Fold this sequence. Notes:
Radius of gyration: 18 Å
Oligomer: single chain
Helix content: 25-40%
Structural class: alpha+beta
CATH class of the domain at 38-131: Mainly Beta
Number of helices: 4
Amino acid sequence: MVAAGLLSLCWAEPAFACSCATGVVDTNTYRQWLDRFDGAVFRGAVIKTEEQAGFSKVTFRVERYWKGVTASEVVIYTPRQGSMCGVSFLVGQTHTVAAQRDNDRLQTDLCIERFIAQNATRFREAIGAGTSASSPPR
């Protein structure tokens, strides 16, 4: 019995303590969320990542934006990869990102990323085409 218990520990799935609200999200809910969201929503490629005191600092080259972008590059912070609620961003990958304002910086986490990815088709319908980064920021 002890051996079986030890073997089950070897194959146990990792436990994650990040708890995100779930539910059906429709296009109208996404539109309302975007209107009230205090942060930035954009699509861009990761050009740099740096580890800092419990956070990953991620720099993106913006391709399109919907809200809160004022430059062609945006820096966001996320809890360090492997920690609760951290999002993994790798250099060269392109992502649609929503990052909320936290004091003087933009920050995202797994719950925000899951919310926008929960129904990607409805999210894209709700937010529309956005603005090309080659256009002047709003």
